[in-house]
Amino acid sequence: MADTFKNAGLDVVNTNLTAVYTVPTGDVGAVGTAPTFPTTALVKSLIVASDSANTTLVDIKWTDTSASSTFVLFNQKSISANTTVELLDQPLVLEESDILYVQANAANQVHVTASVLEVTKGDL
Questions:
Q1: What's this model's pTM, rounded to 2 decimal places?
Q2: Sign of CA dihedral 67, 73, 76, 80
């Protein structure tokens, strides 16, 4: 197993639902390239920072790609003007190909940073 710490950041420049982080997809039978093994991700921290003089409402969702379902973690979470908020109290476990999303009610008002521990199964 290999453990890799990563940060994924996003400047929320529009009001669309936008991916912040996607768990890598394994391909153990890759031809012509080195195989990649399945990965599980632990989102250890999810920070939203306002760089605006206005309060912003933020939605945080994740998609379980194996179930083709999207789930809400935070709905209309209020981020006060010029503040930083840690949203997670405990790690969020995501499986291979799962996606973490953010959406804000206003563009260019928040930045999102996810600190992730990727755990890869198998030896490369």
A1: 0.90
A2: negative
